[in-house]
Specification:
Layout (H helix, E strand, L loop, with lengths): L4 E11 L2 E7 L3 E7 L5 H11 L15 E10 L2 H9 L8 E9 L4 E5 L2 E3 L1 H11 E4 L5 H4 L1 H11 L3 H29 L1 H18 L3 H15 L1 H16 L7 H14 L1 H4 L3 H21 L6 H20 L4 H19 L1 H47 L6 E13 L2 E10 L7 E2 H4 L2 H15 L7 E4 L8 H15 L3 E5 L3 H4 L4 E12 L2 E12 L2 H13 L1
Parallel strand pairs: 3-13, 3-14, 8-12, 12-13
Antiparallel strand pairs: 1-2, 1-4, 4-5, 5-6, 6-7, 9-10, 10-11, 14-15
Helix pairs in contact: 6-15, 7-14, 8-13, 9-12, 10-12, 15-17, 17-18
Length: 543
Amino acid sequence: MQANFFLKKLIIQNFATFKNQTIHFRQGFNAIVGETGSGKSLVLDALQLILGSRADKKVVRKDTDYSLIEASFYCEDKNVRNYLEAEGYPIEGNELIIKRLIYKNGTTKSYINQLTTTIQFLSNFSRKYIDLVGQFENQKLLSSSYQLQLLDHYGKLNQYVFNFQEQLSVYKALNHQLRDLEETKNFREQRLDYLNYQLQEIDKLNPSSQDEEDLLRKKNLLLNIEKIQKISLQFKEIFEGGEATPGLLSQIKSLLHLIQKNKDLFADDLVATTEIEDKIFELANQLEKKFQTDVDQQELESVLDKLDLYQRLKKKFGGSVDSILSTQIEFIKEKETLQNLEFNLEEIRNRIISLKANLESESHAIHQKRLFASKKLSVELTGKIQHLKMKGAEIKLIVEELDDFNDMGKSKVSFLAETNPGEGFYQVKDIASGGELSRILLGLRQILSSYDSISIFLFDEIDTGIGGETAVCIGKALEEVGKNGQVIAITHLPQIAQFAENLVLVKKEVQDSDKIFRTESSVREIHGAKVKNEIKAMLQLIQ
């Protein structure tokens, strides 16, 4: 079965004893093997850098400027793709590439699909989709919040929790709204006075763009009345004439009289001259009406006052008549809200009381389901660790109901273990040895690998302090976890490695180039039928 998300290839350049190596990984169980000190742990160190761990400049190989680690993942997992795209790292095709550069001065650069990223983002990403289980790297699996998430996965309670959280989000929003309204209530009267004053000013003006334009034209006319009257006298003199000069009206009459008197000579011009006379009379009347305006000082002051109000309101409310009108609408809405505040407060309080009762009921129901699931998981996990040669050990998931609900309901999970029969139950992290803890975590992974969002599992020091039948059991368990994703584990035990689908054999040699000796680690991949041959060789070395 094709996995949706797994590590395909790891390139390591100028990294400690690695000069330039490319490692290909497969789905299922990949075992990193080799002699002590060969560089097995460096492979996992390189992977941890890809996953956001901090870099030490000491890893940069001597006489080089930087180390390069590049990981190529096959990715068709919708959750992974959606998460990365939402964060600004879209995946084209089905390949995800993460790259780290570590310079000899200690600075680093990180990339996802050729786009720069941060160590914090790589760390957040890996915590969601890649799991590192080491002898002392168990904070994630042993944190109470993560245990609660795993229990919900196991009990198939995620939809119940999601529905609860949706209601909780509404409940929190209503509480926030209630606080805002109660704060608003404290200065409501003062605010209403302010709104009423501003609305009265706007209502008094009754603003419109057309009204402002008309006022500006009227202001221009009134302020230029003297000039207009002077022009009017000049027009009158042109049309009516002065003491010594006949006017245009008199001259056109004389012209018409002359043509009529001699119409036998000017018959064709009589109509045109008559039309000209009519036009001149019409123009004279129009100009006379236009300039028959007296300066009304009171009217001028009224126009100027109104224009001044326009300017003041525009300055207060956005610089235009449209912004004044928009502000007026906003003020009216706010005024209505404040006037209806008591009703709104009562309505919201009633909704909060109703929602809280629902949340209490739902969180209690989820808690009961968690209790049932925890008992099943305790029995199943106890069976797994006993199969991993922790004879007599027992696991208990204690689920306590809290007084108040939180984002996950009202349950608190305690992960307890009794590793020595009759000695009592204690927090797992407080009593389990490194080897025991690894096996407990492995047992959890066996059960939950098909439930969790994580599909790539890295196991470091999984075989510390064990051997024989226990190693065989751990190898089988790793193989089982690998069926639901990808397992990459360091081991020095052939009893574990024999269950791997792919062996990554790490060797370290001293290279001699012109009597310049350099230590160099290299890798060789072994899969298929050749795995058995390599396991036999490992067994012979042990014997």
